[in-house]
Structure to design on (1103 residues):
C-alpha cells in the first residue's frame, strides 16, 4: 500500500539558521554554525579578520582568523577561527559559516546572540540535517543517524551511530522486509488466483513464516535498548542502607570521570542527575538526591524506594558495607535484585571485613536455568574502597560488561533512533495480529491488511513496498496463468 | 444518421473500450461516430470467452454503476455464472461469467446501433488530423471527418504482428488486417510508442474432446448476475472442463522450443507474466509436473472450446502434438491454432488522468493501446474516456476517480503515473483500500456519480437512495435493539455459539462469525421486509466494521495528500535540491497533486517535501 508515507515538512527553508553545534558543557571550544543564503553577510557583520578581508571576498573552504566584535559597543567578544563554505559543496548545500570560539560557554552564547540579532533564526533541533535531507544531500536514514551523531555524548555512541550510517541497520531491516514481502505474496496469491492449480497455503506454514519475522523484529527491537543507552545514558541507581558509602562512591566515580553535570528540576520533586562517562559509556545516575539525603528516611520507606528505583533502572548498584555484618535490609535488597542488571558493590574493602553473604540467599525457589548459585553472585560482586579509591577500575569494567551483556544484544545491530524503534514495534504488532489472525482462521484479505501495515511501518524507514513489488514476488514464485 | 462528416466526438475502434466510450459520449448528448474496420466484430472477445473474475468483476460492476454497458451485455450473453472466492470475505468475492462470444457481439452491436446520436461506420482510419495542437478530425480510406474530440481505442491492431511458429503475418487479430498507418500517424504527432506481446491458445472442436475423463465445473445456481439492472438470466447454462498437461506434453514443448518465436528471439515485445505461454510455464517452472487446462465453451451453438492455459505460438504441427498429449484431447482437432501477437502501444504516462493526451488537445486514448490487457480494463478506460470527452466539450472538470473510490481509479492512476512494462492487468492486490472497494458496494460508491454525469436515470438513482436509507436505518435499528438472553440463546445454541448472560444489542450478536443476519432477524424482525441486497450490506458492514474502519481512516489520510494540488504548468526546473532525474520524471508525468507525485517511481519523499514547499511558494507569489 503506497502507502503515502511521505513526511510532510512545514517550515521556512528560506531563512538563514544558526545554532551552537557542539553539545553544551563538553568543553570551552564550541562552534556557532550558520546556514542559508545570508550566512556570509551575517557573519561579515560581526567578524573582523586579521587581514581586514571580508568573508564575502574570501574563496570557499577557507579558514580565517579574527575577532568577533559586538557592533553595538565595538567590544571584542572572542578570538575565533571562521570557516567559510559556499553552496553547493556543503553539508546543507547552502552557504555555511562556522565560527569556532574558544572563550567558553558564555562567549559561544554571545556570538550566537549576535548572529541572531543580525538576522539569523535560531535553528530547530536537527534543522541543519533536515536541510541536508531536504536539499537531497542525504537520505532519511542517514539524516536520522546523523542527528544521533550530533546528539551522541561519547565516542562509543558515535561508533554506534556511524555503523548505522553505514547501513548495518538497513541491511537487517531489508532482510525483514524481504521476508514480509514474500509472506504477503503468499497471501495475495491465495486471494487473487483462486482458480490456479496452486496449493492453498497451509496455516502452519504461514504461522511459521510469521513467527520467524516476529523473532527478527524482536531481536532488532531488543538490540535497540543498547542504542538507547548510548544515546540517553545508562539509567543507573545506587541503593543501600545509610552509611554504606553511596555518596562517597558517587563522588569517587565523579572525580574520576566527570563528564557533564546537569541540574534539572524534576516533576514531582527535585531530582538531581549526574552523568558519568565510563569507558565511553554514558551513565546517568538517578535520584542522587535520594542517595544523599537518605538518612532521615525511615528504613522501611528506604527499602520501598529502592525497590521502585530498581525497577526503573537499566543498572542497579547495591552497596554493602564490608566492615559490618549483613543486615536484614541488605538481605532484602539482594533478594529483590535481578542478577542480570545488578552489581553488588562491597565497599570499605580497606577495613576489616565482617560481611558474609549467607547461603540462604541463594536457595531461592528457583529451578533449572534460573537457579542462582553462589557463583552467580560472585560474578556480580565487586569489592572496592571508595575512600581509598581502590577497586574502582574493576567496578567500571563490571558496569560496562553488565550494560553490554546483560539483557542487551551487545555486538548485534544497534538502533539509536526512537522513530526506528517505534516503526519496528508497529511492524511487530501487525505481525502479531497476523499470527493471531492465522490462528483464528480469518480470511486472507484481512491477514493481508496486517502484513501491509507491517510493510508500511518498515517502509517509513526504508521506503515503500509497492503492490508491484508484491506482484513481482508472486510471479517469480508461483506459476500463474491458467 | 449524420449526413455531414462533422461530429463532436469520433471513436476509433469498436471493441470493449470503443463501445463504452461511444455509448457514454452519445448518452451525454454529443453527436458521436464510432469507426470500425469490421462491423461484424463489434464487441469481439478476442481472447478467452469469459468476463469478470478477481478484480475484473469489480471493474465491470463499477462500469455498471456508472451507467456503462459491459455488465448488461455480459448477463445477456452469459452461459455460466460463478462467484469465485466464496470461502473468503465479500471484499474479494468476484463474479466470473462464461459468455457466448457470438451473443456478446450481437447484443453489443444492438446496443450501439440502438443508441441515439451514435453513428457506426466501417472504414479504416489512416490519419489523425491535428491543427495547432488540437484534434480536428480523421482521414479514412474513404473520406475526411471533422471532430473536436477523438478517442482512439484500437486494441492490438496498431502494427499488429501475429506469430505462429516461424511464420508471422501482420494482423490486428488472427485473420484480420492490422492498422499500420494509424500507428505511424500517432508517432508522427510525437507520441512515444512501445511494443507489447500477448498470446492465445488453440481452439478445439467440441466433438473431438473426451469430456468423460475431465473434471467438470459448473456455475452457481441461480446464476449471480453481473449487472444491477438485470432481472433474470435467460441463457441455458454450460459447464467448463478441467484437464492437465503432463510430462509428455512438456517434452514436446522443450523439444520444439527452437521453433517458438518467443525463444528464437523473433518476438521483441514484453508479454504478461500472469498469462504466460505454455512454453514459458514449462521452461520457468520445471518442477511443476502438470499445468491446468481449462476448457471453456465458446458459446451455446458453437462447435469450439477455448483451451485456456496452453497459450502458445509454437508451429501448428507442434500444437497438434501438444494438444493430443493431453488427457481427454488424444483425438482433438484444432479449429484455430494458438498464436502470439505483438502490437504497438502508447506509453500511458503521456496521458492525463482524464485519459486525454498531454501533447494534443482533444485526443483521448483508451484500452489496450494504453498497455492494458483484458476486456474489463479496456471497457473501464473506454467509459472514462467517453465521459471526459463529453465533459471537455461541456467545459466541465474531468471525471477522475480516486484510488480510494474505485478500481477504475486505481487502474487509471497506475497507468498515467507509473506506466507499464507489460500488458497491465488489474489485481485486487493493487488496490490499497481493497476492503472498501467491494463488488457488492459498487453502486453505493459510484451510482450517484453516474447520475450526475447523466448516465444513470432518476428512477435508478431513487432506488439507490432508498436502498442506502434502508441500510442505514436497519443498521441503526440493530445497534439500538437489545435482545434478552431468553429469546436469543436458543438461536445461538442452534448456530453453535456461546449463550449470552445479559441483554445484548443485535449488532454485537451479528458481529459474531457464527451469527447470520437471518438469525437475529428471526428473533427480532425489522419493521419492513428488507431486500436481500440490503440484508447483505447490513451483514457486511457489521461483520467487517473493524477492518473497514481502519482502511477508511487510511483512505482519509490518502485523500488529504491528494488534495494538495500541483498547479497546471508548474515549473519543476530550478527547484533547489531536485535532481535532474526527478525533474524529468515529474515533467513527464505532470502529476495533478502531491499524492500522485509521490507514487511516481523514483520520486523520493525528500523530493516531495521540496515540492510541497515549492508549490506553496509559487502559490504565495
Amino acid at each position: 500500500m503506497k502507502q503515502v508515507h511521505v513526511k510532510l515538512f512545514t517550515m521556512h527553508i528560506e531563512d538563514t539558521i544558526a545554532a551552537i553545534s557542539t553539545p553544551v558543557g563538553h568543553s570551552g571550544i564550541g562552534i556557532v554554525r550558520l546556514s542559508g543564503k545570508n550566512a556570509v553577510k551575517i557573519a561579515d557583520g560581526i567578524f573582523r579578520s586579521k587581514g581586514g578581508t571580508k568573508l564575502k571576498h574570501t574563496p570557499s573552504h577557507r579558514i580565517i582568523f579574527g575577532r568577533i566584535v559586538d557592533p553595538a559597543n565595538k567590544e571584542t567578544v572572542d578570538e575565533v577561527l571562521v570557516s567559510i563554505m559556499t553552496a553547493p559543496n556543503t553539508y546543507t548545500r547552502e552557504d555555511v559559516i562556522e565560527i569556532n570560539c574558544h572563550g567558553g560557554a558564555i562567549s559561544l552564547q554571545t556570538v550566537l546572540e549576535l548572529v541572531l540579532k543580525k538576522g539569523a533564526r535560531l535553528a530547530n533541533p536537527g534543522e541543519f540535517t533536515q536541510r541536508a535531507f531536504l536539499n537531497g544531500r542525504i537520505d532519511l536514514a542517514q539524516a536520522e543517524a546523523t542527528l544521533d551523531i550530533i546528539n551522541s555524548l561519547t565516542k562509543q555512541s558515535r561508533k554506534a551511530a556511524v555503523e548505522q550510517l553505514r547501513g548495518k541497520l538497513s541491511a537487517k531491516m531489508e532482510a525483514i522486509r524481504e521476508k514480509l514481502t514474500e509472506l504477503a505474496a503468499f497471501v495475495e496469491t491465495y486471494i487473487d488466483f483462486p482458480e490456479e492449480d496452486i496449493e492453498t497455503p497451509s496455516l502452519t506454514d504461514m504461522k511459521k513464516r510469521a513467527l520467524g519475522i516476529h523473532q527478527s523484529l524482536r531481536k532488532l527491537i531488543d538490540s535497540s535498548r543498547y542504542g538507547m543507552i548510548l544515546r540517553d545514558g545508562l539509567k543507573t541507581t545506587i541503593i543501600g542502607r545509610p552509611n554504606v558509602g553511596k555518596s562517597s562512591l558517587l563522588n569517587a566515580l565523579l572525580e574520576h570521570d566527570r563528564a557533564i553535570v546537569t541540574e534539572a528540576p524534576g516533576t514531582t520533586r527535585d531530582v538531581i542527575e549526574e552523568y558519568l562517562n565510563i569507558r565511553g559509556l554514558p551513565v546517568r545516575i538517578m535520584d542522587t538526591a535520594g542517595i544523599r539525603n537518605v538518612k532521615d528516611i525511615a528504613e522501611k520507606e528506604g527499602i520501598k524506594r529502592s525497590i521502585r528505583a530498581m525497577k526503573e533502572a537499566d543498572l542497579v548498584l547495591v552497596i554493602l558495607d564490608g566492615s559490618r555484618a549483613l543486615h536484614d535490609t541488605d538481605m532484602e535488597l539482594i533478594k529483590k535484585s535481578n542478577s542480570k542488571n545488578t552489581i553488588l558493590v562491597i565497599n570499605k574493602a580497606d577495613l576489616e571485613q565482617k560481611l558474609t553473604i549467607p547461603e540462604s540467599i541463594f536457595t531461592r525457589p528457583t529451578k533449572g536455568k534460573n537457579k542462582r548459585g553462589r557463583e552467580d553472585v560472585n560474578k556480580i560482586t565487586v569489592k572496592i574502597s571508595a575512600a581509598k579509591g581502590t577497586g574502582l577500575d574493576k567496578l567500571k569494567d563490571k558496569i560496562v560488561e553488565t550494560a553490554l551483556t546483560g539483557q542487551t544484544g551487545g555486538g548485534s545491530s544497534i538502533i539509536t533512533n526512537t522513530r526506528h524503534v517505534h516503526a519496528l514495534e508497529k511492524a511487530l504488532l501487525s505481525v502479531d495480529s497476523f499470527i493471531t489472525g492465522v490462528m483464528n482462521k480469518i480470511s486472507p484479505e484481512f491477514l493481508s491488511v496486517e502484513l501491509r501495515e507491517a510493510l508500511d511501518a518498515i517502509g517509513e524507514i526504508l521506503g515503500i513496498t509497492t503492490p508491484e513489488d508484491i506482484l513481482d514476488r508472486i510471479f517469480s514464485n508461483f506459476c500463474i496463468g491458467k | 444518421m449524420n449526413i455531414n462528416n462533422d461530429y463532436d466526438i469520433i471513436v476509433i475502434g469498436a471493441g470493449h473500450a470503443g463501445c463504452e466510450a461511444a455509448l457514454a459520449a452519445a448518452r451525454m448528448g454529443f453527436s458521436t461516430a464510432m469507426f470500425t474496420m469490421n462491423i461484424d466484430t463489434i464487441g469481439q472477445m478476442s481472447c478467452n470467452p469469459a468476463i469478470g473474475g478477481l478484480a475484473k468483476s469489480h471493474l465491470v460492476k463499477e462500469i455498471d454503476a456508472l451507467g456503462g454497458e459491459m455488465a448488461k451485455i455480459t448477463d445477456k450473453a452469459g452461459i455460466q455464472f460463478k462467484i469465485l472466492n466464496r470461502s473468503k470475505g465479500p471484499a474479494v468475492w468476484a463474479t466470473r461469467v462464461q459468455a457466448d462470444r457470438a451473443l456478446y457481439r450481437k447484443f453489443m452491436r444492438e446496443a450501439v446501433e440502438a443508441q441515439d446520436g451514435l453513428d457506426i461506420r466501417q472504414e479504416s482510419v489512416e490519419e489523425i488530423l491535428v491543427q495547432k495542437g488540437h484534434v480536428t478530425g480523421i482521414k479514412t480510406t474513404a473520406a475526411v471527418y471533422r471532430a473536436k474530440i477523438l478517442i482512439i481505442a484500437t486494441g492490438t491492431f496498431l502494427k499488429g504482428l501475429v506469430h505462429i511458429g516461424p511464420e508471422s503475418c501482420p494482423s490486428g487479430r488472427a485473420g484480420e488486417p492490422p492498422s499500420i498507418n494509424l500507428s505511424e500517424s500517432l508517432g508522427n504527432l510525437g507520441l512515444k510508442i512501445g511494443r507489447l506481446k500477448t498470446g492465445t491458445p488453440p481452439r478445439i472442436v467440441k466433438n473431438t474432446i473426451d469430456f468423460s475423463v475431465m473434471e467438470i465445473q459448473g456455475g452457481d445456481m441461480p446464476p449471480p448476475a453481473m449487472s444491477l439492472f438485470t432481472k433474470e438470466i435467460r441463457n441455458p447454462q454450460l459447464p467448463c472442463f478441467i484437464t492437465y498437461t503432463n510430462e509428455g506434453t512438456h517434452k514436446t514443448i522443450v523439444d520444439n522450443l527452437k521453433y517458438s518465436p518467443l525463444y528464437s528471439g523473433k518476438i521483441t515485445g514484453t508479454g504478461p507474466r500472469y498469462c504466460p505461454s505454455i512454453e514459458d510455464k514449462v521452461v520457468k517452472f520445471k518442477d511443476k509436473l502438470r499445468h491446468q487446462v481449462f476448457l471453456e465453451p465458446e458459446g451455446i451453438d458453437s462447435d469450439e472450446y477455448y483451451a485456456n492455459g496452453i497459450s502458445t505460438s509454437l508451429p501448428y504441427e507442434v500444437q497438434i502434438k501438444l494438444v493430443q498429449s493431453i488427457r481427454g484431447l488424444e483425438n482433438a482437432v484444432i479449429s484455430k491454432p494458438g498464436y502470439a501477437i505483438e502490437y504497438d502501444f502508447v506509453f500511458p504516462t503521456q496521458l492525463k488522468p482524464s485519459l486525454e493526451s498531454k501533447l494534443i488537445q482533444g485526443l483521448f486514448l483508451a484500452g489496450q493501446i494504453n498497455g492494458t490487457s483484458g476486456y474489463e480494463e479496456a471497457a473501464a478506460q473506454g467509459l472514462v474516456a467517453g465521459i471526459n470527452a463529453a465533459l471537455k466539450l461541456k467545459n466541465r472538470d474531468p471525471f477522475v476517480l480516486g484510488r480510494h473510490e474505485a478500481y477504475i481509479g486505481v487502474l487509471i492512476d497506475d497507468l498515467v503515473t507509473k506506466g507499464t512494462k507489460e500488458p497491465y492487468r488489474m489485481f485486487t492486490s493493487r488496490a490499497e483500500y481493497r476492503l472498501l472497494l467491494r463488488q457488492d458496494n459498487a453502486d453505493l460508491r459510484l451510482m450517484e456519480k453516474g447520475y450526475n454525469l447523466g448516465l444513470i436515470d432518476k428512477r435508478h438513482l431513487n432506488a439507490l437512495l432508498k436502498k442506502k436509507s434502508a441500510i442505514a436505518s436497519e443498521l441503526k435499528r440493530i445497534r439500538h435493539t437489545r435482545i434478552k438472553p431468553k429469546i436469543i440463546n436458543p438461536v445461538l445454541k442452534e448456530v453453535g455459539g456461546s449463550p449470552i448472560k445479559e441483554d445484548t444489542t443485535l449488532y454485537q450478536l451479528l458481529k459474531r462469525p457464527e451469527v447470520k443476519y437471518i438469525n437475529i432477524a428471526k428473533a427480532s424482525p425489522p419493521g419492513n421486509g428488507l431486500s436481500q441486497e440490503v440484508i447483505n450490506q447490513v451483514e457486511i458492514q457489521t461483520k467487517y466494521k473493524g477492518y473497514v474502519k481502519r482502511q477508511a481512516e487510511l483512505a482519509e489520510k490518502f485523500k488529504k495528500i491528494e488534495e494538495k494540488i500541483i498547479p497546471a504548468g508548474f515549473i519543476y526546473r530550478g527547484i533547489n535540491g531536485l535532481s535532474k532525474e526527478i525533474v524529468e520524471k515529474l515533467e513527464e508525468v505532470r502529476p495533478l497533486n502531491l499524492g500522485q507525485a509521490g507514487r511516481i517511481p523514483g520520486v523520493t519523499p525528500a523530493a516531495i517535501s521540496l515540492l510541497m514547499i515549492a508549490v506553496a511558494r509559487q502559490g504565495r507569489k
